[in-house]
Amino acid sequence: MTSDVTPDSVPLTTRASPHDPSARSTVTVWTVVVAGGSGARFGRPKQYEHLGPARVIDRSVEVAAASSAGVVVVVPAADVAREATAFSSVPGGAHVVAGGASRSESVRAGLAAVPDHADVVCVHDAARPFADAALYARVVDAVVAGADGAIPGLTVTDTIKVVDDDGRVVATPERSTLRAVQTPQAFRADVLRRAHVSGAEGTDDAALVEALGGRVVVVDGDVDNRKITHPDDLEWARGLVARRTGDRDGRAGVAPGPEEER
């Protein structure tokens, strides 16, 4: 494949090396927190569900703000005013913008609000509320060290089959080469913007950078950085909060929702 990423755009700093905090401090990092979904699979907007006193989205934005110079939060258009008020006290401020009809459109809306001077842009799904500062540091460090993109991943323990439209197995990939990928994903800002300029769609941003010919590397993910997709995932997340805080069910200070009042 011919790469559209020019060689002279690779190193952000000649002093960079993996896991070097001093190198990380020489670049400006912004994060786009994607929370523009309607929760079709979950049954309602999962980003606003509570985990203890904080919502799923609150936890994601808090860590993003602590790990970045600035944060853009992408939410459904009808929620922009409310969420702008909710995040007005975030240190450094959070820019709240309306998302699009797809995840990639929402990322592009967020990316448009990231200032031109940003060197690295992280993209994080709000539905992963347990990403921590160490995970942000790992992906950013890898980009500072020279990668066009860096994504967290976990080894796969199940055997994976590739099937056709009729359900017939057509391939069995070597398990040792597979990774289950998470967010936050970090990218050189110029490369990520270039990857989105065509309006392409992808299930993650790394796929778009890969299609551009960029070099994307995998760093260690976190088993607790699980995505909340279904109601069972939310119950697991509340259990994790309970174990970490001593809260009996991870719902301290939370008013019951309509489905719990019935």
From TrEMBL:
InterPro entries: IspD (IPR001228), IspD/TarI (IPR034683), IspD/TarI_cytidylyltransf_bact (IPR050088), ISPD_synthase_CS (IPR018294), Nucleotide-diphossugar_trans (IPR029044)
Alphabetized UniProt keyword annotations: Isoprene biosynthesis, Nucleotidyltransferase, Transferase
Keyword Transferase among record annotations: yes
Any GO molecular function: 2-C-methyl-D-erythritol 4-phosphate cytidylyltransferase activity
Keyword Transferase: yes
Record pathway: Isoprenoid biosynthesis; isopentenyl diphosphate biosynthesis via DXP pathway; isopentenyl diphosphate from 1-deoxy-D-xylulose 5-phosphate: step 2/6
UniProt GO BP: isopentenyl diphosphate biosynthetic process, methylerythritol 4-phosphate pathway
Protein EC: 2.7.7.60
Similarity-based family: Belongs to the IspD/TarI cytidylyltransferase family. IspD subfamily.
Protein name per the record: 2-C-methyl-D-erythritol 4-phosphate cytidylyltransferase
